[in-house]
Specification:
The chain is mostly helical and 58 residues long. It contains three helices and no strands.
Length: 58
């Protein structure tokens, strides 16, 4: 029997609350706007890079 957990897509979105300084938040928003991204997109790209580094080490 397959559980609901086994069938959930890994692309399903969730939320994450993080604590940043005002300057960090401002920087991320400005950087995102200048590069046609969202702050979420920046974080996703960063995580992709970390995954690739981690997989290369394995």
């Amino acid at each position: 029997m397959t559980s609901e957990r086994d069938t959930v897509s890994t692309d399903e979105k969730t939320t994450l609350n993080i604590s940043l300084t005002v300057d960090e938040k401002r920087f991320l928003k400005v950087y995102a706007a200048k590069n046609g991204l969202t702050v979420s997109g920046i974080i996703q790209k960063y995580i992709e890079g970390l995954r690739k580094k981690s997989e290369a080490k394995d």
